[in-house]
Structure prediction request, 183 residues.
Amino acid sequence: RHKWFIPWDDDFDFYLFDDTYDQAINWLRRELSGQYFVEDQISEQLYFHGWAHVKDMKSITECEEFPQDSLYEHKGISVDLYRTKSMKLKELEPYLNEENRLYIERRKKNGLITKDEYDIRMKRLQDNINNEKKYANEEIKVYNLVPLYKCHYMKASDIFPLKYYNFNNQSFLGPQRAKEMPR
Prediction:
């Protein structure tokens, strides 16, 4: 979309399709050089995200906006590897609510939120679950994007067919209508 770094973001975000996500993560675990590694629930004891990172071992970052990320053993620059699933729009809200529940539970299990914060988040989640009606009858095929943000999805017709984009003299596949990506 920008053909260069996005001014308000500090990492790269890649979306991997659900049907090949686990295979891709396992391949990265085997093939990455010693400078990089896959950070997830397997490699990081306190990991609480629902997606993996590839992290650079030779850099150090600090995250003021998300200080809980500083609890991880390795502090290097990372790439987010999000799982994107194809679903009917009417399935999106229940799926995102379940992903959010799992996220809250992982944060609690790792001692990263207080009981009060846990209760507040679970109450908010229950309110969302009770109001899962926004897309109740929508049959259109979509792909979820970031699992914790309810407004983020793309229509399959905005993604396919994929097309090439140039970034820093490299060519990468992306959605055919990248400008439709939520910001």
